[in-house]
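Bench notes, bay 3.
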Amino acid sequence: MASPTTPRWAALARDTNETKIQLALNIDGGAFPPDTDARLFKSDDAHASQSSKSQTIALNTGIGFLDHMLHALAKHAGWSLAINCQGDLHIDDHHTAEDVCIALGTAYKKALGTPVGVARFGYAYAPLDEALSRAVVDLSNRPYAVIDLGLKREFLGQLSCEMVPHCFESFAQAAHITLHVHCLHGFNDHHRAESAFKAMAVAIRQAASHVKGKEGEVPSTKGTLSAYLIQREKARSTTYCFRPLYLPQTGFTLFSYEKPYPNNRHLRKSKHSATLRYLTRPTKQHLASPAPPILYMSTEGDKPAVGAGDAAGASKPQQNGQARGAPAAAAAAPAGEKKLSGAELKKKAKEEKAARRLQAKAVQTAAACGCGCSRRGRQGQGQAGRRRRRRPPWKQNGAQDGGGGASQAQGDGARVLQPPIHGEAHEHYTGRQGCSIPFYLQHNLEKKGDVFAKACSKVIESYTTPHGATLSRHLTSVVLKNQIDYLTACRPMCFSMGNAIRWLKLQISKIDIDLPDADAKKALCEAIDTYINERITLADMVIVKTAADMLTDDDVVVTYGRHHLVERALLRARGRRFRVIIVDDPFERVGLAHAQRLSAAGIPVAYSHDLGALRTNLQGATCVLVAAEAMFSNGAVYARAGTCDIATVARDLCLRVVALCESINFTERVSADSLTYNEIDPERNSSDAFRLLFDTTTDKFISMVVTELGNSSAKSVPAILRKLEEL
């Protein structure tokens, strides 16, 4: 335990095949400890040296820029620091920079001792000309680092820029501190890096400073900072899994949960993870239901065998040439039983796998039924004479967590699908986060492309490239493929999502395989944000402005249902003397709320709840304003069911029909009917009849198409697609 009068110093010598380091540190400045390695004082060619009444600094790592940064760190932290390093610089700078920072962190932890009577927390801002950095330090004994410097150059002197944040991470790991360093702005990489080191120096000096009147007190609600809360070093090469293991000897069920830290860059590199285990008495549900599948996300070795390492708390890789089920079967075999051969073990594993599949299928069928009984049985319980209304999939039990079923169709035949329990589907797609893909039909396509792009960004941020793979290949072929398969199994993919997927795959394929993962993911996320702003947000603004400018005084506008582009255009045009007639969808009364919003804005509105008086409503109109969910290359408009009826009558009355559509919804496909690309309303789908959600209007009924690229005819879709490819 260090007191204000006890010197907080440490000295060490770290010799490896890569580097030979001698280091002495005094946190409070002044003299060095008496056990300092003699080789340290023989070095007289220090790149950065300074001696004053309170500090002595002498640094010679062989990398001039690293000496410069450590000099700034020691000076502003108030340390006396001496470092001499002989590293394998003929290879590169990695070993030298990393080992020096590890040695410095180790010496700092040794010199600090138990953090008693200190402030523990420290934060600081440090400017250097145009650059400004912020650092936050916690002497928590929990190694964690989040570093964001935004360096763009390849080298700073003889130090590669990728090693600068790695130096912070190595120091934090060895010193067992929590460290956050962010460069807020600046365009000179030298200034950005130096301001970051200076900010960390001031913050760590503040954290290690003694607090008057708190002598002997531990700055923690736990009462100690010396014990590890999580033994991270013992959790290397772990596997993400959650499964129950019934222990017949004790009558308990052991639940093992091992998960890597997905949002921590420095922990991702070393694949540290935390392990949580707890015991519980087995219940009927545990014994009757099959064990959930093991999800292997990222490991350094092969996938562990089922049951291997459960009692020890760590997973072990499979041995080469051994069947997958062999370790589990061998472990489960009682003593004295005849040992099975490899072929017999493999056959037994296949039989167990088939049995688990049948059991899982039975459980899934029972869950889809809802109460475990058949439909015929339910009808026999006093409901034979009453027709039950089908509940939409988003209202089914379990739909909140992405497990609900969905009745849907695509093509000329109906298909009823239930979203699979997809082990590789990310939480931002399955609905366990707020950024899930919506299934509500009234908002099915208006925000689906935007939400899908944002979910892709979340997946990329939490992605870690497995050992031996490259981001540009593994991310597309494995990770995104699983997410896309999950979404298409839940519901047919809209055209904007298809275009976004093709664009994202193209951007991933352009990534250099030598680019660091952090830079690659940052570039992809920035590209996705730009894509959303340009192709969705700004496109909507331009379309709304163009459509609003087309309206003049004394116009009578007829619109169908509700679409956010049409509503925003009409609201933008308020102040002019025009009237709106809203013909609502007879099945989905979305136009009523649309009429209420327009009326509240002071726009005269007439509302018709169905298509019965369509010709009468159109006789006094001057134009028809509709929104397209997609545009085919032959000029056909894909929109809400009923749009074609309005366009047909409007053409007979010689009215102008204007369709609003973003270019992200343009497709190279051709459609000549309303059955090839469509969906069935799951709420109105029975053996007698069903309702399609969309229809197709041919180009001859469309007078003009308004996009963010301007006004054009429906026949101009191929030209617009070619222009988009050039952009």
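Next record in the batch:
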Amino acid sequence: MTAEKRAHNRIEPKELSAHITIKRPPDEELLTHGTVVDISYSGIKIKLDSPIIAETNDKITIDMKLPQSGIPITIHGVVKHRLPDSQCGIYFGDLHPEESVDDLMFECVMHAD
């Protein structure tokens, strides 16, 4: 098996839920909930709770609470991949400086399987 060639390792937090807003032009907004499958410094994979189809390049906002401290955070990104089972890959690497993701990543590591 070949190793993934990623700049950042993925972390799989336990039962981290999120409120998700998908925005489409001109002003359509879809709301749903989901669970974080994995996260890295540049992206996040979400499993949506409802059958809403996230389209590639949809703008997305993910609101969640840090797993240990309960501090609310918001991540803005773009859907890059549509995956089976209502999952989607979201890229946010250019939208948030790495330092701003540090607390989230630290708590996800502490809360991982």
